[in-house]
Design a protein that fits this description.
Number of strands: 10
Mean pLDDT: 92
Shape: globular
Radius of gyration: 18 Å
Low-confidence stretches: 209-217
Oligomer: single chain
Order of helices and strands: HHHEEEEEHHEEEHEE
């Protein structure tokens, strides 16, 4: 836990992408995502106050716990244990920031009809309108995003494999973290209404190894 705390503190107090990259898992792949997300090299560091040592969950090589940042807000954080001559830990940056391939504002402006990967908190919903107005054709869900004061209405074709899986995981009152691929219907009228095209992962940690991916199409 001392090593984990040291890594998390260094990660959260880094003020440049280059410095933070030293403490990030899958750094080579994630580097361009970080520069896009932060808009360059400079980072406004979250700061570090305390790591919760009493609530640590382990799953294979990953562990999750809670950290209190400099503004005294507690947030979940995930790390991967890397084996080598000496074991070390690296923060899963994508789940930390809730990384999406396009920002909420970009999605609303561009309304992409090709699937876009997003990290969202998924809950059940009952809103139907425009292209998704038929509750006999569609099942309704709500998507919330990390540090964004906006929600999307998302839909799965009723009875599809995606809908069956979602209905099994998302119970009324739950918010389930997932990595999804979403897309707008052609000539979409609603800015925040999308179709769920794939479930990439339950949770926000993307398993890079192909055999570990859980994809529903």
């Amino acid at each position: 836990l001392d090593e984990i705390e040291k890594t998390v503190k260094a990660f959260l107090t880094s003020e440049t992408v280059t410095e933070r990259l030293k403490y990030v898992r899958d750094a080579k792949r994630v580097y361009p995502l970080m520069t896009k997300f932060y808009g360059g090299e400079k980072i406004e560091a979250e700061g570090f106050e305390e790591l919760d040592r009493s609530e640590v969950t382990y799953l294979d090589q990953f562990l999750t716990t809670t950290v209190m940042t400099g503004d005294f807000v507690s947030s979940p954080i995930a790390l991967e244990r890397e084996e080598g001559k000496e074991s070390s830990y690296r923060v899963d940056w994508e789940s930390w920031v809730g990384y999406c391939e396009s920002s909420v504002e970009e999605l609303k402006k561009e309304k992409p009809t090709e699937p876009v990967l997003v990290r969202a908190l998924v809950s059940s919903d009952s809103y139907f309108n425009y292209f998704f107005g038929d509750d006999k054709t569609w099942s309704s869900y709500k998507l919330a995003f990390r540090n964004v004061d906006a929600t999307f209405s998302a839909y799965a074709q009723k009875g599809s494999k995606i809908d069956q899986r979602l209905s099994g995981m998302v119970k009324e009152g739950d918010e389930i973290p997932m990595i999804l691929k979403i897309a707008y219907p052609p000539k979409a009228k609603g800015k925040t209404q999308v179709e769920i095209m794939e479930i990439v992962e339950q949770g926000w940690i993307l398993e890079v190894a192909e055999e570990k991916k859980k994809v529903a199409k």
